[in-house]
Amino acid sequence: MKIGLFYATDTGNTRTVAKMIKQQLAEAEVKLYNVTKAGAEDLESCDALIFGTPTLGDGELPETLEAFLPTLEGANLGGKPVALFGLGDQVNYPKEFVDALGILYRKLKKLGAESNGFWPLDGYQFEKSRAVVNGKFVGLVIDQDNQEELTEGRVSAWVEQVKPVLLGAAAMAG
Ligand SMILES: Cc1cc2nc3c(=O)[nH]c(=O)nc-3n(C[C@H](O)[C@H](O)[C@H](O)COP(=O)(O)O)c2cc1C
């Protein structure tokens, strides 16, 4: 019974949020994996998966996550529940806000993984985002650059939202 939280990070913000999520999921065994050090066997050893990524470049995936995609494609995700979160900067990148979250969502969808934990757009100001599908973000969105004071509340509300599906899967696997 294990939840794997796989994250990419450039300056450490995504790791900080990953640690907050782990804290909020105290009743489960949550293991954090930097994607630079994770393999297919790590994905396969977990009963449920959380992925977190910042958006870098011009609305792009971090290179480290790009490099991890073949591993993701090669792993058997076996219908495990998946939840996503993304970090971005809505003030400096209003037209590419958390685009990487949207890119990752589509990759996972292609691999047959249906993500949980869609998140409302309320409280964010931006023009465009690839992470918006049917009027919602495809995962938790965090802006440490401009709204750090909201992060803890957002994380705890989102964890409450995804807990039943993530823990349900972990519990069923015994
Ligand atoms: C070079 C660079 C490019 C960025 N490009 C984007 C972007 O296109 N869209 C966005 O929402 N945020 C963008 N950001 C903001 C980061 O996603 C944000 O600062 C995030 O918290 C960084 O997370 P990390 O510390 O885990 O790397 C960019 C930041 C940097 C430094």
How would you sum up the major sheet?
Answer: 6 strands, parallel
Helical fraction equals: 25-40%
Q: Any low-confidence stretches, pLDDT <50, length ≥5? A: none
**Name of the top-level CATH class:** Alpha Beta
Mean pLDDT: 95
Distance N to C terminus: 6 Å
Q: Can you identify the CATH superfamily?
A: Flavodoxin domain
Attribute tags:
single chain, 174 residues, alpha/beta, Rossmann fold, 8 strands, binds flavin mononucleotide
Describe the 3D structure:
The protein is α/β, with parallel strands linked by helices and 174 residues long. It has a single domain, classed as 3-Layer(aba) Sandwich (Rossmann fold), CATH 3.40.50.360. The protein is 38% helix and 18% strand. It has helices at residues 13-24, 40-44, 63-74, 99-110, 148-172; strands spanning 3-7, 30-34, 48-54, 82-87, 115-116, 132-133, 136-137, 140-142. The strands form 2 sheets. Strands 1, 2, 3, 4, 5 and 8 form a 6-stranded parallel β-sheet that branches. α3 links the parallel β3 and β4 (82-87). The N and C termini lie close together (6 Å). The structure holds flavin mononucleotide (FMN). Flavin mononucleotide is lined by residues 9-14, 54-59, 87-89, 93, 96-99, 144-145. Residues 9-14, 54-59, 87-89, 93, 96-99, 144-145 line the site of flavin mononucleotide.
Brief digest:
This protein is an alpha/beta fold and 174 residues long. Helices cover 38% and strands 18% of the residues.
What is the element layout, followed by pairings?
Blueprint: E1 3-7, H1 13-24, E2 30-34, H2 40-44, E3 48-54, H3 63-74, E4 82-87, H4 99-110, E5 115-116, E6 132-133, E7 136-137, E8 140-142, H5 148-172
Parallel strand pairs: 1-2, 1-3, 3-4, 4-5, 4-8
Antiparallel strand pairs: 6-7
Helix pairs in contact: 1-5
Bound molecules: flavin mononucleotide (FMN).
The site of flavin mononucleotide has 22 residues, from helix 1.
